[in-house]
C-alpha cells in the first residue's frame, strides 16, 4: 500500500481498504553483532525484506520493532534488550490494536532470540481469535551470528555500515555443538568477539542473492496466507 519503501499510508488510505489488508511488522533487535556490524543489524535486515513487499496493494508495513529479546548477548556493550516477557506483551498489544483495521498480522522476524516471545504471543493472539502469521528470515546452511550470512546481507543492504577492517572469524563449529555452553553462559562465554561463524567469507553478491531469495519466500508466504485468510470467515 506504500508509495515507496519506508513510506507509510495515511489513516484514510488504510480505512479505504475496509479491513481487507495485512499488517506486516518487521521485528529486529539491538544487540552486538561482532566488531564489524552495527547493533541494529537484525532490524536493518528485517526492514530490507519488508521494504520489498510494501508495494503489494493489500500490505501495510508497520515501523519496525527495533528492540527484541537479546538476553543471550548480555555482557557486550551496547546491547539493549526488552526481554521475552515484554516483547510478548508488545506483540500481543499491537495485534489487538490492528484488529479493527486489518484482516491479519504477519510478523517478519530477523532475530532468532525473539522466537519464544513470538511463539507465546501467537498462541495468545490465536486464542483471542486474531489472525497472525509468523515468518522468520532463515537461511538454510547459514551460520549463527554475525558470520558469513548476516555480513553478506549487510554488505548488500548497507555496505557503508560494515567495518571491513574488523572482519575476523569467530567460533565456527556447528551451533548444535555450542548449545550447551550458550545456554549456560550466553554468547559471551563462547565467543569473546560475539561472532559465531566466519564473516571473512562474506560477499555483497552473496548478500544480494540471499536477500532476493528471502524476499521471494516472504512474498510467496504472504500471498498464500492472504488467499487462505480470505477464504476463511472470522
Ligand atoms: Zn543478527
* Arithmetic mean pLDDT: 95
Radius of gyration equals: 18 Å
Helix percentage range: 40-55%
Biggest sheet details:
4 strands, parallel
Which ligands appear in the coordinates?
zinc ion
End-to-end Cα distance: 23 Å
The name of the CATH architecture is: 3-Layer(aba) Sandwich
Please name the fourth-level CATH homologous superfamily: Creatininase
Give the total of beta strands: 4
| Number of H/I helices | 7
Enumerate the strands of the largest sheet in spatial order, edge to edge or round the barrel. Answer: 2-1-3-4
Beta content comes to: 5-15%
Q: Total domains, how many?
A: 1
Can you put this structure into words, describing what you see?
With 234 residues, this protein is of the alpha/beta class. The chain has a single domain, classed as Creatininase (Rossmann fold, 3-Layer(aba) Sandwich). Helix content is 41%, strand content 9%. It is built from 7 helices and 4 strands; from the N terminus they run H-E-H-E-H-E-H-E-H-H-H. Helix 4 (115-127) links the parallel strand 3 and strand 4 (132-136). Helix 2 (41-51) crosses helix 5, helix 3 (83-98) packs parallel to helix 4 (115-127) and helix 5 (148-157) crosses helix 7. The longest helix has 28 residues, at 204-231. The two termini are 23 Å apart. The mean pLDDT is 95. Zinc ion binds at residues 33, 41-42, 111, 145, 150.
SSE arrangement:
Layout: H1 11-16, E1 22-27, H2 41-51, E2 59-61, H3 83-98, E3 104-109, H4 115-127, E4 132-136, H5 148-157, H6 175-185, H7 204-231
Parallel strand pairs: 1-2, 1-3, 3-4
Helix pairs in contact: 2-5, 3-4, 5-7
Bound molecules: zinc ion.
Zinc ion binds next to helix 2.
Amino acid at each position: 500500500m506504500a508509495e515507496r519503501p519506508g513510506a507509510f499510508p495515511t489513516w484514510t488510505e488504510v480505512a479505504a481498504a475496509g479491513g481487507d489488508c495485512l499488517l506486516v511488522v518487521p521485528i529486529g533487535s539491538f544487540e552486538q553483532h561482532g566488531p564489524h556490524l552495527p547493533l541494529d543489524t537484525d532490524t536493518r535486515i528485517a526492514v530490507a525484506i519488508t521494504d520489498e513487499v510494501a508495494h503489494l496493494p493489500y500490505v501495510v508495513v508497520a515501523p519496525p520493532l527495533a528492540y527484541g529479546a537479546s538476553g543471550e548477548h548480555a555482557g557486550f556493550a551496547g546491547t539493549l534488550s526488552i526481554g521475552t516477557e515484554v516483547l510478548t506483551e508488545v506483540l500481543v498489544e499491537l495485534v489487538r490494536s490492528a484488529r479493527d483495521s486489518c484482516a491479519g498480522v504477519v510478523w517478519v522476524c530477523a532475530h532468532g532470540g525473539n522466537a519464544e516471545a513470538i511463539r507465546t504471543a501467537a498462541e495468545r493472539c490465536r486464542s483471542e481469535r486474531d489472525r497472525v502469521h509468523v515468518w522468520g528470515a532463515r537461511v538454510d546452511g547459514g551460520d549463527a551470528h554475525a558470520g558469513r550470512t548476516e555480513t553478506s546481507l549487510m554488505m548488500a543492504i548497507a555496505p557503508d555500515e560494515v567495518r571491513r577492517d574488523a572482519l575476523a572469524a569467530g567460533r565456527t563449529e556447528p551451533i548444535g555443538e555450542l548449545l550447551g555452553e550458550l545456554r549456560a553462559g550466553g554468547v559471551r562465554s563462547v565467543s569473546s568477539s560475539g561472532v559465531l561463524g566466519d564473516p571473512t567469507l562474506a560477499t555483497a553478491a552473496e548478500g544480494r542473492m540471499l536477500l532476493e531469495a528471502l524476499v521471494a519466500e516472504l512474498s510467496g508466504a504472504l500471498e498464500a496466507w492472504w488467499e487462505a485468510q480470505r477464504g476463511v470467515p472470522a
